[in-house]
Amino acid sequence: MATHDGRWPAGSPCWVEITVGDLERSQAFYAAVLGWAFEDSGPDYGHYRNALVAGRRVAGMSPPLEGVEDWPKVWTTYLATDDVEVTAERASAAGAQVVMEPMDIAAFGRVGLWVDPGGAAFGGWEALEHNGFGIHDEHGAVSWVDLVTPDLRAAKTFYRSVFGLSFEDLSVPGIGYATFTPAGAAWPAGGVGDQVDGDVAGPRWCVTFAVDDVDAAVQRVLDAGGSAPNDPVDTESGRIATVAGPDGEEFSLMTPSGGADLSEPG
């Protein structure tokens, strides 16, 4: 099992979360599709839910927020930082728009939110007691994130200057794409790609969850009230499908190539 203890290296995707329109409905959906269990953080934290796989945190879910019920129903990706104040300074200097200035989340950590120059929202997480993902690349856990951007070169410049990421270009004719690796990490942590013509969802960070069987998982999405506009496709990395949850939120499901055994969470 791909567990993780301690802080994630700066620049690593370390957490994803979503604000939903109906907490009970969304919990039931993701429990059915990904096998998640949930822990309630209690009234002091607005009943924020941590989603769990095998007892380890994999994602966060918030109920509707009073006064901001129209907050976008999208998965937000957070990148790890050793100092969220420094990240805020670098992000602003590099042209980011501030959504939320750095603030404390009790003893769990410090957080900030921005929109990058290409228009994609993202967060920074400075871990204290809450390190982010406690498990990854397992059934029900995040396996990959991608930034979709209208300007690949500008995005690489921005995230390099803010988080110190390095990039490996994997572009093919007509499609620009690069993987990124945090400083000191041994392997890529995610990717950055061109926004293709006809993509009406706009610039965004996209989240992919690992599943044991993509086709079966897509059927669970449909049975639980989500949607699947397209059939799963085979790629070099594995078989993948992009689907949508109860609030129309986009995410992807992937079974890695090579027949990896991603067992159901206990």
Automatic annotation (TrEMBL):
Lineage: superkingdom: Bacteria
PROSITE patterns membership: VOC (PS51819)
CDD domains: SgaA_N_like
Annotated segments matching region Disordered: 225-266
UniProt cross-references to Pfam families, sorted A to Z: Glyoxalase
InterPro entries per record: Anthracycline_SecMetBiosynth, Glyas_Bleomycin-R_OHBP_Dase, Glyas_Fos-R_dOase_dom, VOC_core
Stretches assigned to the VOC domain: 12-127, 141-256
Segments traversing the membrane: none
Record-given protein name: VOC domain-containing protein
Lineage: Bacteria, Bacillati, Actinomycetota, Actinomycetes, Micrococcales
